[in-house]
Amino acid sequence: MSESQGSPTAAAERDTATADTAESDGSRAEAVETPLRVENLRKTFGGIVAVDDASFVVESGSLTGLIGPNGAGKSTTFNCITGAHKPDSGVVEFKGEAITGLRPDQIATRGLVRTFQIARSLEEMTVLENLMLAPKGQIGETLWRSVLPGARGQVIKQEEELRERVWETLEFFEIDHLAQQQAGTLSGGQRKLLEMARALMTDPDMLLLDEPLAGVNPTLERKLLARIHDLQAEGYTFLLVEHDMDVIMEHCERVIVMHQGSVLAEGDPSVIRHDERVIEAYLGEDV
Amino acid sequence: MTDGSGSEPQGGEQSPGAEPPGDGSVRAVFDDMFGRIERSDVLIVATAMVAVYTLFTIFVLLRLGITTGTPNAIASAWRELTFLFAAYAMLALALNLHWGYTGLFNIGVAGFMAVGVYTMALLSTPADAISGQGLGLPLPIGVIGGMIAAALVGLVAAVPALRVRADYFAIVTLGLSEIIRLTLNSRTLSEWTLERFGFATGGGSGIDLPDRPTDALFDTAVGEALIELFVVEIGGEEVTLVAASVLRRFTWAVVMLAITVGFYWLLRRIGFSPFGRVLKSIREDELVAQSLGKDTRIFKIKVFMLGCALMGLAGILWQGSQGFVSPDSFRPIVTFYVFVAVIIGGSGSNTGSVIGALFFVSLLFLAPRRVGGIVDARLDLLDAPGTFAGAVDPLITVFNAEPMLAYAIDNISALQFILLGVVLILIVQYRPDGVMGHRTETAAAADLDRPNRGESDE
């Protein structure tokens, strides 16, 4: 708690800087300054404490990095936030509302959408189907509407509207040439792009990206980071788990460092880079 | 238009001048023909059906030759084929919805059929039936009641079972199916009545069922005329080419085939819809579907109940149409057969399920017995030896294969299982996507091609 106390003011300045770009686009998530707030999160597996009293906030419109050595509890924290795990205690707040312990689909419906560390594409489905699946509020997801002749017309109409957005998104991520391919035939990097495109199709307020760059070649990595910055400029908020320190330091404006299940440090990359506890945690692991 | 775009890539593949022009055009015609068949599922099914019905006509001719009894035998063979094809096609389509689309490994198909049939029987069988007792309500109430009951049993199974992993779900459904069969077999329920209402399953001796609704047709002038149609005069004698009893049952088989078309229509519509898209995503990776905001529990329960209702209906149309049913008709082997049909056709494809059911019923289920019958009738074999040793002994001592052949023919229904196993292994090894190969059936209600690209098409 004490650590997160100092950061909002520091980040508020940066917030106003990014707000300029966001406002021109008619920004999203504008109402809440800190869309995501994690307080005293704790999760144990048997006798092992994976997340131990972690607390942090993510500011609106920011690109926040979550780093830490292996086993620091990053992925478990992610899973607790998105509902894949139920935390033992603690509170997760999204847009000012407690979402602790909700089901993954309830959390996603509220606008907090995640991607996975190992890209989970729906392999036997085409890239198009993958993207068409994602949007919220599809009337054709009701059984009777998809079957009854009278209602089917509306379903087709909505599908045609979604199709437009799907192709725009595919073009934005430059994977439109893969549209008709089965997702299982895509390369690792392409799957990462597909996952982000799919997450974006849900029209989220905030994206949680679990190692979006793992296994991605340098060209694709630049492309992906450029896309993330484009989206940030549109007003999306990002929380990004990443192993690569350099990427985090270069691209994120705020960094949260986890170590042994709790938040070790939080703040500006340039400060974090010289934080002795962080260096120690990383060196202690790497050497 | 389609011809032009279809043959275009072929032109690109063939290097010009590599083949004589005449040969090339013949090939192009063939490619085009088969290309078009591939494009049209109706043609595939129709072609396969013509082939199978021709095969069974040949079977009858081989066995009987051409006599006055041949038309009746052919009609009877076609009747059996149509009846079982429709039954298995409906069940395969319903199972494909569970397993092929949603990935719900339901190995309790027979149990849900039993619930449908017995509920229909208890509602619609007259109270003065010889075996079992029902309420004697009108048949449509019985049929709808049977479907609802099957769906509700599906719900009861689904709510706790869908929380567990896929393999445990399979065990739960298999267990449930056996519990249902054994319950229907129980003596306690066999003569159970409620106040003054008859309400008894008949236990192991089974329950009487209401008549087929189409049978009433044969009491009218239309039916009389239909029967008369097949009575002809040959050399001053009146000959009945197709017996009235065969016609009655054939009519019902045709009705079942029509309802199968209805099943296909319904499931195809579900497949090509946003609902079907969510089902596919659950099959592929449920956590992804959830992470995109889909409440997968609701989808799974809905689809499970719908599939169970369809299985109940298929059971009613099949086992419920023969005047009598006993729990023995719902052994797990029936479920296994339906799975074989879906695997042959390729899980996940509705057309594949229909084709799989056709091939299973004709080539694997009925053909071995027919072939056995032909060999038996034509070769005039010895009496079959009583044991396997008795069949093998002359084969290796005096090189006489006849006892072995007679033994094999005598045990053809057991050998069928070996055939089934071999076919399954071959399919899974060499055609894991089913006989029709890999099919991309895009789950969407609209065409998903890039819009506003009209000019680049031509």
TrEMBL record, chain A:
GO annotations of cellular component type: plasma membrane
Instruction: Report the InterPro entries cross-referenced here.
Output: AAA+_ATPase, ABC_AA/LPS_Transport, ABC_transporter-like_ATP-bd, ABC_transporter-like_CS, BCA_ABC_TP_C, P-loop_NTPase
Q: Which PROSITE patterns match?
A: ABC_TRANSPORTER_1, ABC_TRANSPORTER_2
Q: Which CDD domains match?
A: ABC_Mj1267_LivG_branched
Q: Which residues form the ABC transporter domain?
A: 36-285
Q: Which GO terms describe its molecular function?
A: ATP binding; ATP hydrolysis activity
Q: Among the record's GO biological process terms, what is one?
A: amino acid transport
Instruction: Name the Pfam families on file.
Output: ABC_tran, BCA_ABC_TP_C
Q: What does this protein do?
A: Probable component of a branched-chain amino-acid transport system.
Identification of the protein by name: Probable branched-chain amino acid transport ATP-binding protein LivG
Automatic annotation (TrEMBL), chain B:
Q: Which residues form the signal peptide?
A: none
User: What is the organism of origin for this protein?
Assistant: Halorubrum vacuolatum
Q: What Gene Ontology molecular-function terms does this entry list? A: branched-chain amino acid transmembrane transporter activity
Q: Where is this region: Disordered?
A: 1-23
Q: Tell me which UniProt keywords the record has, alphabetically.
A: Cell membrane, Membrane, Transmembrane, Transmembrane helix
**InterPro entries reported in the protein's UniProt record:** ABC_transp_permease, LivM-like
Report whether Phosphoprotein shows up as a keyword of the record.
no
- Tell me where it resides: Cell membrane
Which named protein is this? Amino acid/amide ABC transporter membrane protein 2, HAAT family
Which regions are flagged for Low complexity bias?
A: 1-17
The membrane-topology field of this record reads: Multi-pass membrane protein
Q: What is a single cellular component term in the Gene Ontology annotation?
A: plasma membrane
Principal place of residence: membrane
Q: Does the keyword Cell membrane apply?
A: yes
One family name in Pfam for this protein: BPD_transp_2
Give the PANTHER family listed for this entry.
HIGH-AFFINITY BRANCHED-CHAIN AMINO ACID TRANSPORT PROTEIN BRAE, HIGH-AFFINITY BRANCHED-CHAIN AMINO ACID TRANSPORT SYSTEM PERMEASE
Highest lineage ranks of the organism? Archaea, Methanobacteriati, Methanobacteriota, Stenosarchaea group, Halobacteria
